[in-house]
Structures are given as C-alpha cells and as structure tokens.
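User: I'm writing a tutorial on reading structure tokens. Could you give me a worked example: one chain, its sequence, then its tokens, then a sentence or two explaining what the tokens reveal?
Assistant: Sure. Here is the example chain.
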Amino acid sequence: MSEHIVAAIVGKGVRAFELSCLIEIFQEMKPQHVESWYQLKICSLEKELNIAGGITIQRSYDFDALNAASTIIILSWRDTTTPPPEFLLFALREAHHRGARICSICSGASVLAATGLLTNKTAITHWNCSELLSSQYPDLKVDAKNLYHEDGNILTSAGAGTMLDILLHIVRADFGPAIANDIAQRLLLSSHRVGTQNQKKHQPLSDIHAQANNISLLLEWLEENISIPHTIESLAQRMSMSISTFQRHFLLKTGMTAIDWIINLRLRLAKELLITSDLPLKKIAAMTGFNTIDNFRYHFRKEESTTPKKFRESLNK
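And here are its predicted structure tokens:
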C-alpha cells in the first residue's frame, strides 16, 4: 500500500479529543512491520485553530490538501446553521467523484449533507443532533440509533465517543483485522464495536464486568477461525452459556446477532481477498468459511448487489 493521505477538515471550536484520536491512530500507532502508513493533514480555513478548552494550535494545511487525499474526515462542526463555504462543498464532491473515502464525525454530517452526497441515503449523527439534521435535510434518512454507517465510500458516525471505533474500522478496511486488533489492544480498547451497536444502550455494570471481556475474546477467536463452521450452539457451548444467554450478551456487545456478525466478517474478509489477491473464488469461499461457491455467491450478491466474479472484474476496469 502506498502512502495514504488522510485529510481532516477542522472547523472552529473543534474538540481536542477528536484531534487526539486522529493523531493517535494515523500517526502514533503505526505498526513496526508496516512500511507505509497514513500521512495525516489537519486542514482548516483558519490559520490558528481555537480548540474547545482554550487551546490554540497552528493549522497544518488549507483545503487544497483535499485534492490529494485518499480519505477525508469531517470533524464535528459547531456552526450547523450556517451553510459551509461552497468551495469546500465543491472539493468534497470532486473528492467523492475520484473515489476518495469521506467520513463525517457527529455534527460533521451537516457538512456532508450540504454537498448533496447523502441525498436519499442513511446518515448517522449524534442522537442530540438528529432532529436538526432531519429538519435541514428532509431527504436524508437520519439514523440516531447506531454508531456508524458505511455506504460505498461514504461513512457517517455518531458522537466523538465513536471516533476510535470508526477510525479502527478504517484501519481494518485498509490493513486487515489483525493490525486493527493490535492497535485496539495497545490502546486498551475493545477489538471491534460494530456500527449497528446502539448509541444509547446502557448495560448493567454487572453484565459489563462479567461478560464484555469474554465476548471480546470470542470475537477475536472468530476472526482467527472464520474458515471453520460455527453455530449458535457451538458458540454458546464455547462460552459456557445457555443459547438464550449467549444470544442476549452477544447482541448487547455487538448490536448484531452472532450469525449476522459472522456473515458480515466473512464478507469483509472475502472482499479484501478479492481486492488484494488472485486466489480462485473456490479458495476464497473455503478460507472465509462460506465453503461452497454457491453459498459465497448468494451472500455476496445479497450484500453487494453483484457477484464476486463481477466485483473482481470491475476492479480492473
């Protein structure tokens, strides 16, 4: 992978936490064995950035840096009642047209919505911002429940607390689950919070302490053993739980059923192999646990609206 430029769009009053997450993931967490990592560029209209809390820093780049970015991240946007500058919206449309990945954090969804790129699409923002976003852009399907959502090369996410989740999701897509999990462990984080986990879900402390770590370990084990068959019964037995207890705790932890989570993981790994390798489809089906071409094709078509073969062919056009 060549150097991947990540441009972060920063407005007035940005949270220090959001900037810290970007620096931590895209600069400080570079694995030793990875030759080429991310190059982070902090972009702003202002030469001096006044960060919430009274901190002032110098910007790194202006918005011209967006032209070379492979990933653009729009941080929380304080002034959601004033339209963003048209040249910024134009730059985002151009970036999307050339295939750049664009991700919004919290109220940054309002900037992305103003480009028109979210029209008739699902957009996630913090639940406290959802009513305003819906009233400003009635053609959006605003989701105030889940953590983050991916639609092609556009990602939207909830509050600042989901920053690390969405950034690890990006690392996972670019470098695979092993590196993403390694970074999560170095940061003492859960290895994987899926986007469909509920923003406002509150677990009892007893459940968190007793079961969360065990489910996290199971998720890591599944990623390492995705090629073998799994059933609800076998997973519940592995966790020493009844089926109903296991299903309840898995849903609380991930926001998905175990079967849906496993299929999602298999599809993500299969897509990665289609992009990065010339392995036969039969081999990919076996490596990802689909086992048969027909089963692989069925689930892939259901998710991507195309077949694995046509998806791979489209990469070379």
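What the tokens reveal: The longest strand covers residues 4-9. The chain is about 45% helix and 15% strand.
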